[in-house]
Write a structure and sequence with these properties.
347 residues; elongated; Rossmann fold; 4-stranded antiparallel sheet
């Protein structure tokens, strides 16, 4: 999967960061520790992804960076402005697309944009021109005079992003922008976000729990787990750090998973063995070459394999290495970092 490329990204990396977080901590009532000293830096003009399962602390982090919540400790800078000392200026410099739609369902798409633009001081011909440009850009011209409640999920999400861009912000925050969309609508949104990133000097911070979304859109990303940044780099850098191949074995009997892990752990050249249901996964220095030995060892132990595949490293492998469990396991159990009831839901 190729990543978004931005011609200005290399020059942007040498400018002051558009976003800088330093040691951010946040604890909610009841003892829920949402952030545990989060630090990262986002070069101007790039797409930066925060990848983590629901409950990892991503939404809490976005709330702090967009001045909707105060940290218990730490500091941050957004668009060259101090979060704690200049919150009003920060709000004027950013656009925010929250997990839940901010549109008025009874108003038309055009009316939603006009109202949002007026809140930022746009008037007259400039206002009309900006709204029409955004409706055109996001393919909403034909639906512009329909109530937003009649829009499909994908159309409504496009309107949300258009509203976040109406005042030409320096930094755009997209908190789980494709959650709840069907695969076709999600793919359309990915295409639009990739085009947006490639055509402008806008800095985008994207939170997501979709591995493919982070791999496709982010030029750099931070993997967040239980309120901490556990890894940071470009998707390709992180995957290159996972040497060898991933061998996945589908067991005929899920009850044999523990025994299968014990068998593979004893084999040379095999590490990071993990089981999930009837699926067994291991990091192997030479995946294709080691498959016969893996299957033979399982067979000798009386364990039947239904299928086996070999693949190059993915972001899921990176997450497993740094978080100690697969992304799917973390999604099911929940990382427990974000406070229940926070805007947009815990993520």
């Amino acid at each position: 999967m190729t990543n978004v490329t931005n011609p200005a990204a290399e020059q942007a990396a040498h400018r002051p960061p558009a976003i800088r977080a330093e040691g951010l901590e946040k604890r909610y009532p009841g003892g829920v520790q949402a952030l545990r000293g989060v630090s990262f830096s986002v070069p101007a003009g790039t797409v930066f992804g925060l990848l983590g399962p629901n409950g990892a602390g991503k939404s809490t982090l976005v709330r702090i960076l967009t001045t909707l919540s105060l940290p218990d400790r730490g500091s941050g800078v957004v668009a060259g402005l101090d979060l704690l000392r200049e919150p009003a200026a920060v709000r004027r410099a950013i656009g925010v697309v929250a997990q839940r739609s901010g549109t008025d369902g009874n108003a038309t798409g055009r009316e939603n944009l006009l109202l949002h633009a007026r809140l930022y001081g746009l008037r007259g011909a400039a206002l009309t021109r900006r709204v029409e440009d955004l409706l055109q850009r996001f393919g909403l011209i034909a639906a512009g005079d329909r109530p937003a409640r009649t829009y499909s999920g994908g159309m409504r999400r496009k309107l949300d992003v258009a509203m976040g861009l109406v005042h030409r912000p320096q930094v755009l925050f997209l908190d789980e922008p494709t959650t709840g969309l069907d695969p076709e609508a999600r793919a359309e949104m990915w295409t639009e976000l990739a085009r947006l990133a490639g055509e402008s000097s806008l800095t985008i911070l994207l939170t997501t729990h979709y591995l493919e979304e982070a791999d496709r859109l982010a030029q750099r990303l931070a993997i967040v787990d239980a309120g901490r940044v556990v890894a940071e780099g470009t998707p390709e850098e992180l995957k290159r750090g996972e040497h060898g191949d991933t061998v996945s074995v589908e067991l005929a009997d899920p009850a044999a998973a523990a025994a299968a892990v014990a068998v593979l752990t004893r084999l040379p050249g095999i590490h990071q063995v993990a089981a999930e249901g009837r699926s067994l996964r291991a990091r192997v220095s030479d995946g294709a070459g080691r498959v016969p030995a893996i299957l033979a060892s399982l067979s000798d132990a009386g364990i039947q394999a239904a299928a086996v595949t070999v693949a190059r490293p993915t972001l899921d492998d990176v997450y497993l290495r740094y978080a100690g469990r697969s992304f799917a396991q973390a999604e099911r159990t929940g990382a427990g970092a974000d406070a229940p009831g926070a805007q947009g839901g815990p993520s």
